[in-house]
Fold Peptide deformylase.
Amino acid sequence: MAQQDTDQQHVGVLPVDDDGFVIDTEDTEERESGYRERGTSRPITVVGNPVLHKECKDVTEFGDELDQLVADMFASQRTAEGVGLAANQIGVDLKVFVYDCQDDQGVRHVGVVCNPKLVDLPADRRQLDESNEGCLSVPTAYAPLARPDYAEVTGQDEKGNPVRVRGTGYFARCLQHETDHLYGYLYIDRLSKRDRKDALRQMAENEPRYEVVANG
């Protein structure tokens, strides 16, 4: 089979590098503000809300409704001062997350992934980082959690084009954390019982700095 035309290989919201991964580090301020200014900030769902504890539905329709959801997610993420946000964190049962996150070198990454899947890495590429982790859906709580310091995610952009995203350090943690959300897992579900209890205690003892949806 003949090789595809180069322009066809690069069709999508973001350009790709020579390895086929999106280049999400260019025009970050312009792109993030473009999304956010079209959106409306929504309150954040918190642990205990049923939408956070089940696998979300696949995104199958790519159009104006999804575009507005993505804009609302960027607006909500900025209001809550987060670095990543999954759709179920604003109560929407769809597999889509947005991110505005720096890696450990201080490089800013901004993008959208629908229907994400984490690439299973070989053991020799799973160097664990045991840094603290927090979550907008578990406000004010933090706990150390070991995760690989490199991650690759495949999925689609908000127009339905296939995408591959990779990250290191803190950004790798973000990609894993947000993908987890869309399959019904919070980071506290990966903690020991003792650490999970401590995280929930931290949440109970402090007030979130952004609007949340009360459970029950």
Notes: The chain has one domain: 28-207. The helical segments are 6-9, 28-36, 64-80, 169-182, 193-205. The domain at 28-207 is CATH 3.90.45.10 (Peptide Deformylase).
